[in-house]
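USER: My hope is that you can spare some time for a protein that puzzles me. I am handing you a single protein, as its sequence and its fold in token form. Walk me, if you will, through where the backbone shape changes along the chain. The protein I mean follows directly.
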Amino acid sequence: MDQDYPDFQVVVVNDCSWDESGSYLEEIQPLYSHLKVVTLNEQEKYRHGKKFALSLGIKAASHELLLLTDADCKPVSKNWISSMVSRYQPSTEIVIGYGAYKKTPGFLNKWIRMDTVFNAIQFLSASLLKSTYMGVGRNLSYKKALFFKNKGFASHSHVMSGDDDLFVNQTATKSNTAVELHPESFTESIPRDTFFSWLKQKKRHMSTGKYYKANHKMKIGAFFLSHLLFYAALIILMVIGCRWEIVVGVALVRLLIQMFIFGSCMKKLGEFDILWMVPIFDLIVLFLYPSISISNLLFKDKTWK
């Protein structure tokens, strides 16, 4: 509510909350003329997901530029709006930002942040190379006209997830998308506090990948295939009796290149303190990500939360 921006509106969608959110919003609404509340009441015969609630919030918005975040997120500065919308040019319809997770003690927190950075480096870099394939709803902006021109989420309304990445995947072009990476443009979210809750969230995030455009799926698949083939090649070299110095040397060269690239990116994203996790993460995701993908094929999640 205290963003340093001349004219903006805060639209809060109170989506069937069971707590005191509604009462709190009623209490503070008289204090903020630019606060608009959209309330959805739970109906026993009709259960909706996030896309329906988000669509109503977008329809209620007064301005053309939309800037979205989630209920468990907050901007890291008062210049969040001004930083994100500064990237708009006449041809720009989408601005993709970085959504970080709050830093707390413990390995799980570092793992979640490392996973977030790993994925952010991929989709932000792709967008900078004019090959945008996704954005995250924790920090995403697009024009209201773009939303209605593409009939909102209609093309993937049957998918529980994807209000952010699928929408961007279907609407982004080489010329209509920009990236904002100034530290004041970041948002910060509350991370999961157990591995299993994070795993469920990760499964939901990965479940939408099969709906991406074919060329994007090929590029992402090629990346992970190269990851697998590298370790397979190392094993083959050892099996055929290649000198261990060569095998170790190849692995170290790749690791050094990784550390340099990740270090540069993580410094820009404010995550440099977990650089040491790169080799650990690189090995674990070799097995974890394929396992999640197989699980998504075998078991369907019926909820979006």
Notes: The first strand starts at residue 10 and ends at 15.
